[in-house]
């Protein structure tokens, strides 16, 4: 049963990570100059850890029945320091070190230490907290956990169903301290280093362009599903309208066609898709300040616009729509690697280049947008 909180935490963390992925990438590019894979992995690990900590405190939650306290009301606080370990000398005398290690009370104490080791490591390494501040946060966190148990999840339950144990406070604080000592190990995770000057233009790599495409797809998917909610509500509440042909098509058109139209408007207004702006890219035509509307329209049609139309057709019941949409997406990925200069299919058919949107820094000689056009390979 104790596996369940961890599984729940991982599932919720994955959902939260998908929702927060685009703003996280945007923040990383503006603060650190790029998305470090190692930094992103540690951020996700911290998210999983926080949610797992919450889950292990709350899950499983027993049903609230009229005679709840007769079943769970016998939990009295354990206020004796190291009281849960007072039987270990006898265990050691009769069974040696192996018996101590196998003792349930010792294992519980050791698990409470291990539970807070990641907190000390994350606070010290990722959030740059001092030793005293890290230990103080660890103590405050374990106090909050113990009082949550003592108050029956802050009076949601009429009596506590888990034990308030001062030994947990001791073990958790020790675990936080161990985490402070082990925090330098997190420096060994590659892909955490920020660029020297995050505000300066950088070469446009294939990985960076792929990341922008992924951000576009996530924004379209999330935005389309949010827009679908009022449409489905209208169909359920307005029965006469639900019989019209257009209202029948709306659930198919909204999830992908509407976001694709928004992408087109952003593209025409700014010269880049929302996903490109997240990773600080835009389209550029060599020799001109801004690409023309016609070329931007071509870039949209062979890219996100075409994908949106095919996805909408698939939702409307056209069977080839789904495989064609997947094929178009795969073709863009392959073309990004194979087309000379890394321009991809969009750049090849529209005559546009992808450049860094950050203004060039005056250093020695002035840089032109062409100095940071699409190039194959490299890090994001």
Automatic annotation (TrEMBL):
Transmembrane segments: 6-25, 37-58, 106-123, 130-149, 169-189, 210-231, 256-275, 296-318, 324-342
Domain VanZ-like: 46-186
The keyword Plastid is annotated on this UniProt entry: no
Pfam family, one: VanZ
Top-rank lineage group of the source organism: Bacteria
Start and end residues of each stretch annotated as Disordered: 358-380
InterPro entries for this protein: Teicoplanin_resist-assoc, VanZ-like
Protein name: Glycopeptide antibiotics resistance protein
Organism: Actinoalloteichus caeruleus DSM 43889
């Amino acid at each position: 049963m104790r596996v369940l909180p961890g599984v729940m935490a991982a599932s919720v963390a994955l959902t939260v990570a998908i929702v927060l992925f685009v703003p996280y990438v945007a923040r990383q590019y503006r603060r650190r100059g790029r998305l470090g894979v190692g930094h992103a992995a540690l951020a996700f690990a911290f998210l999983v850890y926080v949610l797992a900590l919450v889950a292990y405190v709350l899950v499983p939650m027993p049903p609230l029945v009229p005679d709840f306290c007769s079943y769970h009301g016998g939990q009295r606080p354990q206020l004796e320091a190291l009281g849960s370990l007072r039987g270990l000398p006898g265990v050691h005398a009769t069974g040696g070190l192996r018996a101590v290690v196998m003792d349930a009370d010792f294992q519980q104490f050791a698990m409470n230490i291990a539970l807070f080791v990641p907190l000390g490591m994350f606070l010290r390494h990722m959030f740059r907290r001092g030793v005293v501040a890290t230990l103080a946060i660890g103590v405050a966190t374990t106090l909050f956990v113990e009082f949550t148990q003592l108050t029956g999840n802050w009076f949601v339950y009429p009596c506590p169903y888990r034990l308030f144990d001062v030994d947990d406070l001791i073990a958790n604080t020790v675990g936080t301290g161990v985490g402070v000592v082990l925090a330098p190990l997190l420096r060994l995770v590659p892909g955490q280093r920020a660029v020297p000057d995050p505000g300066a233009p950088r070469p446009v790599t294939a990985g960076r362009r792929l990341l922008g495409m992924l951000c576009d797809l996530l924004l379209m998917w999330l935005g389309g599903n949010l827009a679908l909610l009022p449409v489905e509500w209208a169909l359920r509440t307005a029965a006469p309208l639900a019989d019209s042909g257009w209202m029948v098509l709306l659930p198919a058109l909204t999830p992908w066609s509407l976001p694709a139209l928004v992408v087109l408007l952003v593209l025409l207004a700014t010269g880049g898709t929302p996903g490109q702006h997240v990773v600080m890219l835009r389209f550029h035509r060599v020799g001109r300040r801004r690409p023309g509307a016609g070329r931007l329209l071509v870039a949209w049609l062979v890219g996100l616009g075409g994908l949106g139309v095919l996805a909408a057709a698939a939702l409307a019941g056209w069977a080839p729509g789904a495989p064609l949409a997947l094929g178009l997406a795969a073709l863009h990925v392959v073309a990004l690697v194979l087309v000379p200069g890394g321009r991809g299919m969009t750049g090849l058919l529209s005559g546009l280049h992808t450049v860094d949107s950050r203004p060039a820094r005056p250093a020695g000689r002035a840089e032109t947008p062409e100095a940071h056009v699409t190039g194959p390979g490299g890090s994001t």
